[in-house]
């Protein structure tokens, strides 16, 4: 017998938004002393605590500003907000899977938006 899992819903989140959600889960689990935190959950909490640079509101504002740019789709905007690239080479790695390349001016335009938040 094979059990298939079905994706019910999908939503992009920044690391900062994920940090807030996991903090709520961690607080909920701390109340019940008998309930252990699974290894994966503990590692996820450790990861977001280490890598979340912006607060959730600033991260969402960054995503919104990136979405206003021509060559940035939703998935790429969230990826940029999570990675916060500092130079053209780091930003090019975000676009490495795309079928197009960005000009220097387009890269600089995206980096200028990111620099407002870092």
Main beta sheet, described?
none
Structural class: mainly alpha
Low-confidence stretches: none
Do you know the CATH architecture of the largest domain? Orthogonal Bundle
Our count of domains comes out at 2
Count of individual beta strands: 0
Alpha-carbon distance between the two ends: 51 Å
The helicity comes to 55-70%
What is Rg? 17 Å
- Beta percentage is under 5%
Q: Please report the number of helical segments.
A: 6
Please name the CATH topology of the largest domain.
DNA polymerase, domain 1
How does the overall form come out from the CA principal axes?
A: globular
Query: What is the average per-residue confidence, as pLDDT, rounded to a whole number?
Result: 89
Task: Give a nutshell description of this structure.
The chain is an all-alpha fold and 118 residues long. It contains six helices and no strands.
Explain what the structure shows.
The chain is mostly helical and 118 residues long. It folds into two domains: 15-51, no CATH class; 56-115, HRDC domain (DNA polymerase, domain 1). The chain is built from six helices and no strands. Helix 1 packs across helix 2 (39-51) and helix 1 runs antiparallel to helix 3 (56-67). It is globular, with a radius of gyration of 17 Å. The termini are far apart.
